[in-house]
Amino acid sequence: MREIIVAGSVFVCLTIASIGTMVAYPRLPARHREEETNTVVRLVANIFVVMTSLVFGLMINSSKNTFAGIDDSVHSFATEIILLDRTLRTYGLEADDTRASLIHYVEQALASPMRLVDPVLQSDRKSEMALNAIGNNIAVMNPTDPNHMALWTDARQQYKTIVERRWVIVEQSEGVIPMPLVFMLMAWLTLIFASFGFRAPKNIIVLSMFLIAALLISASIYLVLDMDIPFAGMIQISDAPLRRALAELQQ
Description:
The chain is mainly α. It has one domain (2-204, 216-249). It has nine helices and no strands. Helix 2 (35-91) runs antiparallel to helix 7 (179-197), helix 3 (96-110) packs antiparallel against helix 5 and helix 3 packs antiparallel against helix 9 (240-249). The longest helix is centred in the first third of the chain and has 57 residues, at 35-91. The radius of gyration is 27 Å and the shape is rod-shaped.
C-alpha cells in the first residue's frame, strides 16, 4: 500500500508541476520571462537531474540487494528443512511425529494467501506453535545408541539453523529504503518537471509527453519500493523453494 501511495503522489506532483508552470508562464511578469531567467532555471534543474539519477540508482541497487538477499535466505531455509527431514528419516520410526510436524509447518506456510507469510513474514502465535512443535518433538526423542545420538544431535542443530534462518528473513523483510530519501527524490523530480514546463509550448504533444513521463517515473518508483518489500505487492519472492521442499518431504 505504501508504494502505491508514493507512486500516485509522484505522478500527481510531476503532472501538476509541469502543466502548472506551462500554464502559468504566460501570466508571469515580463522580467520573469527573459532568456537569462530561463537559462538559470535550466542550470538549476540540471544539477538536480544529476543528483536524482545518482539517488535513484542507489535506491535500485539497494532494493535489488534486499530482494536477492532474502531470496537466497529462502532457498537456504528450504534446504535446511530438507536436510532436517533426511536426518529424521534416517533416525527411524521414532521421528515420524517430528516429520509430520515439519510437513504441517511447510503446508501451513504455503496455504497462506500471502506467499511465505507463515515462515518469513509474520511472527504470530499460530506459526510459533507450529515451529515450536518440531523442536519439542526433537527434544523428547530418546536416542539409545551412538548412531541415534549422532543423528539426534544433527537434528537439533538443523532445527536451530532453521529457526535462525527464519528470524533472519523476518528481520530483512521490512525494507531498507528510508522514506525521507523517497520524499527528497519526489521534491527533486517535481522541481525538474516544473523546469520542463517553463516556456514549453502548449500543445497536445507536449502535454502527452509530460503525462507519459510522469506515469513511467512513478511506475519505476513503485517497482523499486515494491521490490524493497519482497513479501507484498506485485513483485514477491517465489514460494517455489518451499514447494520443492514439501514435495521432498512427502515422498
